[in-house]
Records
---
Amino acid sequence: MKIFLDTAELDEIKFACSLGIIDGVTTNPSLIKRAVEKRGGEVSMEEYIKEILRAVPGPVSLEVVGTSFEEMVDEAKRLYMRFSPYGRVVVKIPICSSMDGESNIYDGLRAIGELSRIGIPVNATLVMTPEQAILAAKAGAAYVSPFAGRIDDYIRDSSGMKRGRDYGKADYYDFRLMRLIAEKRLEETLERCEDDDVGRIYLNERVASAAKQGHDNGIYSGVDLVRRIVRIYRNYGYKTEVIAASMRNARQVREVAEAGADIVTIPFYVIKQMLLHPKTIEGMKLFVADVVPQYADLIRSKG
């Protein structure tokens, strides 16, 4: 599995790349704006993006800001022409650019198809369902980015929890526990249902409400979303690579790796989480305490 860094902080990017573990970077306009502003006008946004591209050994995703087909295609062409001489540019296009559920519904998909046709690699972003991922692959996207963390948040919120009160952004979502709770609630609801007609039980509002808990239209977590997309792509031989995005913690990274994601894109702090374990630290203390002085002198001597 490839690891991308989800940041626009150049210092983080350079350090992570120096570790030899980073294969690419994903950014967005907000991340780039904040990173440039931290430098107090010492560098222009254009030069800063070029520096990122020079520092990264693989693809760098840059995002359009338009919402119509024409705007997204034009902006993608400009981004690609301006920055591809400095590195491997991939353009992020939302799978659906509608903001009201009525207008621009198909424009993202059309833009993905048009840009892929003319040879500009596309990262189809804001993917929340396997259905969207199928369309992105059919349109020719080089990458698809299912937002695992946001799906976890959506399911928790739909179950009555609230971010900031009941869970933090980086908290692991135990979807297995949630599924057990939801199944238990459905079982108890069915037991309280006194009707013996299957059709009426099926249509019972309380039963229907209980059956909808703990998932988003049959998707039980962000990891489950990634797993199902990977399975569909392998079923039909789609070439689109799956980028597990919106990662919040190290356990999520492990689980999307087990699910078969081609790539995971992570914030810098998750690298630290992936490295640390109490028993590793304890072991280091024991190793250092057990060092034989003569052995240490031997391996440290220049002769």
---
Amino acid sequence: MAVARRRLIPFLFLLYIVAYLDRINVGFASLQMNQALGFSATTYGFGAGVFFLSYVLFEIPSNVILARVGARVWIARIMISWGMVSSAMMFVRSANMFYALRFLLGLAEAGFFPGIIFYLTRWFPARERARTMAAFMTATLVAGVIGGPVSGALLTLNGAGGLAGWQWLFLVEGIPAIVLGIIVLRTMTERPEDALWLTALQRAALVRGLESDSGAGQDEHAGAALRDGRTWLLAIVYFTIPVTLYGIGFWLPQMLKAASGANEFVVGLLVAIPYASGAVAMIIVGRRSDRTGERRMHVLVPALVSATGLVLSTLGSGVAWSVMTLSIAMLGLASMFGPFWALATAPRSSRSSMSSGVAAAAAIALINSVGNTGGFVGPYLLGAINDATHSFTVGLFAIAAMLVAGGSLVLAVRDA
């Protein structure tokens, strides 16, 4: 198990850093782009969030295709296409073009995250999943740590080569996805049985561990996921996590710009602090959840911590207060991911939509796609409320309330 983790997780971690950075770099671009193109907060919030509409629409079909054709080919296709669209964002000239390219980016990337989650279930048994998934999903936070300074530095290229800083940002940050997609196509190993880098004994042990998780039935129909109440309940719980993650992620640079008055590079450095706090907390809580075997309270308590940070952020001013409270919000939020996905992918009975193959892929995609409608709601809600009130306060209270509701609802999720 340890050999597989050392081999797979660092590479998947790198892929997800690039994926998440290409999603949220519009938040950094907005520091220049909104003024240059005359975008209001509502226009920007809608464009940032519209990514998730196409992402949600095509997520289940994408993951079903992945289960049939294999992760190697499909993940490569996803990465190459989204890298091309991400770089093409440099050509945005109007609100409609902004909306169209963000929609296409969501379409291109649909299936990446649930595809990787499904891929991990083919390599790691349930007892190992919270820390394994937390290690992989820490990339979300590391992308913020790395992306802040890098994006801030790219914005300083404003005017170089006849391009604005925000255009350089989109151009440069889209290229790694294309390169890594080609590497995936050449190197990704589909299953433990195919892993020539494991010894015969290691392969046999890994396969036995996975077989012990297998349900008795082999329901291979994607439609089973649509009929499973537990899957829908998990999707509703998950909805509140992207509401917060992307609500904060897409607006964090502007929040800290307003609080600090600093230039783009310094804002990038400040943005890295909440993400770094979240990365540490995600690993610690994921390991503790695996050690105790408990999942629900490891989702609920971090949700309450994150909501508290969001509320506190509205009760003070200044850059130190903003960074501290938003770091609390991010570390609580980040801690939810590993235990949540360990709960969602726990081995199921023969009657379950999560029992095998295509059905499992569809169930994971359903949870992620319904949940990721929150990725549209969060940014748009904050933008619209900010235009109406000239403050993020009401929006942050609304997001905090949703997160508390989702964390509480997880207590109703029955055992697998």
---
Amino acid sequence: MLRGILQRKAAWEILLKVSSGMYSDLALEKVLENYEFTSLDIAFITELSFGCIRYRKLLDHWIDHTSKLKHKKQPPKLRWLLHIGLYQLLKMDKIPDSACISTTVEIAKKTDLNKLSGVINAILRNVTRKLMSNNLPDFPINQAERISLKESLPLWLVNEMITWFGICETEKIAKSFNKKPKIDLRINTLKKNRRELIEIFTKNNIDVAPLKNLENGLVLKSKPRSIRKLPGYFEGEWLVQDRSSQWVVPLLKPIQGDKILDACAAPGTKTTHLAQLIKDEGEIIAIDRSDIRLKLLKDNLERLDIKSVKALNFDATKLIDNKPEYINYFDKILIDAPCSGIGTLARNPDARWKIAKESIDQLIAIQEKLLETIFPLLNKNGLLVYSTCTICPSENNLLIEKFLKKNNKLKLVFEKQILPNKDESGDGFYAAIISYIK
């Protein structure tokens, strides 16, 4: 099978796995295990498969515009293969239309969709004719419905964002959710500084650049075959962390000797950042209730060679009952709370189809309980940072406002919401610093 067809077949297999419930990053990893691809191949497959996942709603709209058999009535295998062809025709301008169509048809011919190859050919050719004659599908006049369809987002989410931020900001955010996210790295300053790491990457012909306002951050500009094959990975000289996430931990101003609690620690990205900033000299208690996630945390601690962290399997909301000696014990506390993750939809293309409006209320209840049960563990001179990777006000500033009204001995020191509407902004993140009133 020709390489161009293999690339597209791999992308189609990723869509099939995601449609069956697998997370997109895991589906990508599982499918690539079965092939021998170059870094350029992988970049193409990732863009194609993740693009199809992001734009699922728009691609279905085009199917309904060009096919007698509407998308809801199509066999899933046919629907996802049509998405492979459609995404190339609509979003990948450098690929000739003939190649978009012929490779998609060839995949059908070499699989159990052989009998439908003619249908696929007809639909995709119909799309090219409609594009040439500017015969585009209709889009709603209603602004929310139009954004939902063009940017391929659930309508309920678009309506919520309009309530939160207005139409103009919502359009910017919606477009940002469909941009290819950058890969940011955080340097493990316990082993290397930024200058040293840039020199190492440069010697290995890997293009990186410093991140603005983040002294230990780099953005990866090259397209690696595998993150793990980059120099310094197994030596623990860096780890992947979005620029918005890197901004959170320094808010605690951790120093050597601090006693720190990371209440929702796994997989350890922020835990290891805390350890770096205290130069691995202090006491960090990192807790998580998931054995699987706790293993990821321990793996990161081992890879980065961090010794100051003690990882415990605990439900953070029950820590005060199980460890009463921790009351007023910690100098600094981080609650990186479980949240809807709406700020990370560009990085997690399938997440938009898994978030439910109803589930946010359940998350808010957990977030409130975390704050109520964890705050008594902070000493009277300490700082607590509450953070999320969502842009939902009910999980962020409104929740903190409600919490402070119930606890009049506490005060808001600082809060900030980062919106994912600019190239340099990274994911959507929120953080608040809270302390006791002295």
---
Amino acid sequence: MVINTNISATDSASLLEQSSAKLSQSLQRLSSGSKIISPADDSAGLAVSMKLTAQMARVDGAQNNLSNAVSFNQTQDGYLSQVSSALSRMSELTVLAQDVTKATSDRALYQQEFKALGSYINDVATKSFNSVSLFAGGTLNVTTDSDGNTFSNVGVNLKAASYTTATGDDISTFTGAQKALKDVTGAINQLASDRANVGTNIESMTYYNNQLSTLNNNLSAANSQITDVDVAQESTTYAKYNILVQSGTAMLAQANSLPQSVLRLLS
């Protein structure tokens, strides 16, 4: 038996240090909810998790873009619904102005209302959404995924000739009312097509948005498998190393006391 080198104590101290490190790691995982406290815990998993997290952020951005674009189209349709009512009334006025029993003064009154409705439509053509023109007619490329792919959002042009010709007509004469009827009918047909495009835009982007929601859920689940701690399993691990630390501490104390037995040989 030797005194200078206590192998039992050295081994016990080494094992106690390992158990203490595992216990500390388990505590950190339980308190943070994450399995990866440092890159050394799972370097490959950390790399994958970083990529998944970045992709989820891009997906969130694309969803935000789609939601705003849907709101843009819904605002368009709100205005176009009123334009539809205005054009319907204008078409009615063009027929009323063709009544042979109406005097010139009667047609002048019809023209007054017709002109006011036309001015309303022309004013709607100038409206914007967050400083972006609602009715400039240009196609907007809306981001639909995390890779930057886009959907062509077909625009509406209320300054197109089919609209401006109708709103500029004069129904104060019988001949003018006949021409206006033809022009307003054309504007109504154009509006029907435009509103159908707006509806298609909203429907398509809603599908894209739903698709992104599903993708984001799947990405989140995959990332959770890599980074989130299993509390039940980790609690068991914590209990294990907590016992090992306590028993290791006791055994180290016991190992440190062994050299004292040499004194019995000297007495």
